[in-house]
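Tip: read the tokens left to right.
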């Protein structure tokens, strides 16, 4: 566990918000980008839990710190980013204390990741079968050739692709099929948690829904949890059990998906909700959120959202906000509550 180098920006009564034991417990996580001008804090005191079998959504605009958190918990942050404080516990193990060997076991076996650029994640000169078997041979070297072949075929079948496609090259598959292959690889070692970082952004809406429904079925069958990261809030509400909304490196609201959709409290969450058209009901004018996310080299003092907030009060620019539980399981960081 790393020592916390800066005071916690967010206090969170997670014990009351999370009843069952957590598979993943992140506490007061801080990530800095070390620039020649000094550290720039990209993630500031983030805490949340993911329960076994849960889909936990992390939403927010680009640059809000969503992907940085995912990379931090996998310990694959590219330099100059460093984890400067907090703790990450996975099934009771301290991820930030793991050595290289332990990390190798942890990645793919305990936690796998479907990356943002999944469309390009496959090697164009290897067949999809060889790419699945590559992961199997690396982590389960005792498998015979026949066993690895059978498992690769089974994995393709799980994601709805004919086993005859084992010999296909990525360019011979549609975008949706390539994405399913990437998911098959992520499932290869039966992980307990799958991180999906904008997994369907590059696909059309119909294929997107189809793949997400299939992942939901697989999750129920195989029992893994999902950390689902996207900027598409309507997709997230449909697909997640609980959702945390991020703004400028901090969680500003956390609640069950239905509660967040029906009763968004933070002005930023309300703005995000108004940025997407409703799938049903009468047509409404989309209002969106004025202004742009802050420059993280100099985030605004007090509430980081105050320059864009339509409910701002005199003390909002002076006093930092802390996440507080305002209803069972519903936490918000805003001076209005
Ligand atoms: Fe708006 Fe103030 Fe709440 Fe920040 S703390 S979201 S500025 S009302």
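Filled-in amino acids:
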């Amino acid at each position: 566990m790393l020592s916390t180098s800066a005071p916690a920006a967010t206090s969170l009564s997670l014990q009351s918000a999370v009843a069952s034991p957590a598979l993943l417990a992140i506490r007061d996580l801080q990530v800095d980008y070390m620039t020649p001008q000094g550290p720039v804090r990209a993630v500031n005191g983030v805490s949340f839990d993911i329960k076994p079998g849960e889909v936990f959504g992390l939403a927010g605009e680009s640059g809000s710190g969503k992907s940085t958190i995912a990379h931090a918990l996998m310990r694959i942050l590219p330099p100059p980013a460093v984890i400067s404080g907090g703790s990450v516990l996975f099934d009771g193990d301290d991820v930030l204390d793991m050595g290289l060997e332990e990390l190798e076991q942890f990645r793919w076996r305990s936690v796998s990741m479907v990356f943002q650029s999944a469309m390009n994640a496959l090697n164009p000169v290897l067949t999809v079968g060889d790419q699945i078997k590559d992961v199997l041979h690396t982590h389960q070297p005792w498998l015979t050739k026949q066993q690895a072949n059978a498992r690769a075929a089974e994995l393709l079948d799980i994601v709805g692709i004919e086993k005859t496609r084992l010999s296909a090259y990525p360019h011979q598959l549609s975008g949706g099929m390539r994405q399913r292959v990437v998911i098959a690889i992520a499932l290869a070692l039966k992980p307990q948690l799958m991180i999906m970082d904008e997994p369907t952004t590059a696909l059309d809406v119909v294929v997107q829904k189809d793949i997400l429904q299939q992942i939901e079925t697989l999750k129920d069958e195989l029992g893994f949890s999902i950390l689902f990261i996207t900027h598409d809030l309507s997709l997230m509400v449909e697909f997640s059990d609980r959702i945390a909304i991020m703004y400028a490196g901090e969680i500003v609201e956390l609640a069950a998906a239905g509660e967040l959709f029906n009763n968004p409290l933070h002005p930023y969450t309300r703005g995000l909700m108004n940025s997407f058209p409703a799938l049903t009901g009468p047509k409404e004018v989309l209002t969106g959120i004025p202004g742009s996310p802050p420059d993280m080299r100099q985030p605004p003092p007090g509430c980081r959202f105050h320059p864009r907030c339509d409910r701002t009060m005199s003390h909002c620019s002076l006093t930092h906000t802390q996440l507080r539980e305002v209803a069972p399981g519903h936490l918000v960081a805003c001076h209005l509550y």
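The domain at 6-110+227-278+285-332 is CATH 3.40.50.300 (Rossmann fold). The pocket of iron/sulfur cluster is lined by residues 266-267, 303, 305-306, 309, 311-313, 316, 321, 334-336 (CB under 6 Å).
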